[in-house]
Write a structure and sequence with these properties.
Blueprint: H1 6-22, E1 26-29, E2 32-35, H2 39-46, H3 50-65, H4 73-97, H5 101-130, H6 135-166
Antiparallel strand pairs: 1-2
Helix pairs in contact: 1-2, 1-3, 2-4, 3-4, 4-5, 5-6
């Protein structure tokens, strides 16, 4: 088991609070609703520490605002944190150590979009696995996350570019 090192504690808390705030912003897409997550930057910066960061934020949302709920907290943490870990594994080293600005920007955008779509695919799978009657809802949610994937990709691109320029040690 990986331990949360004290040097990463401030970063983890900061990004957990950013996730908490960003996920309060709901975006209506047709009949569905989705929200920002910033999960790709969290994954790229925190690596495995994305799990406790997401857990704390979702726990506070469940307790303070009754969002998500305590019963599904584990599934929600997995659905949000695992895509962050996946983009960390796939893109983390290339983005952190990349010197080519165009390639780093492209990978950052791709990481942001991929994290959202992996999370949406997991959510759709969880819904469908619950009951076959949720298939149409799962399809709608998957489609509703495409615009969000583009938005999160752009946010991730600018956020990583800003960090590389102004605070490269934070990465």
């Amino acid at each position: 088991m990986k331990a949360l090192k004290s040097g990463k504690l401030v970063r983890t808390a900061l990004l957990s609070s950013a996730f908490f705030l960003a996920s309060l912003i709901n975006i209506k897409v047709g009949a569905a609703s989705t929200h920002l997550t910033l999960i790709a930057p969290m994954g790229i910066i925190l690596g495995w520490s994305v799990f406790p960061a997401v857990f704390v934020a979702l726990l506070l949302q469940a307790v303070l605002f009754q969002f998500g709920g305590l019963v599904v907290l584990g599934v929600n943490v997995l659905d949000m944190a695992l895509p962050g870990l996946i983009v960390y594994i796939i893109f983390g080293r290339s983005i952190k150590n990349g010197t080519n600005k165009f390639l780093t920007s492209a990978l950052s955008f791709l990481a942001g979009a991929l994290a959202v779509m992996v999370g949406a695919l997991m959510l759709s799978t969880f819904l469908y696995a619950t009951d076959n009657n949720f298939l149409s809802m799962a399809e709608i949610l998957l489609l509703a996350h495409i615009p969000l994937a583009l938005i999160e990709g752009i946010i991730t691109l600018f956020f990583i570019a800003w960090l590389k320029r102004s605070a490269p040690d934070f990465l």
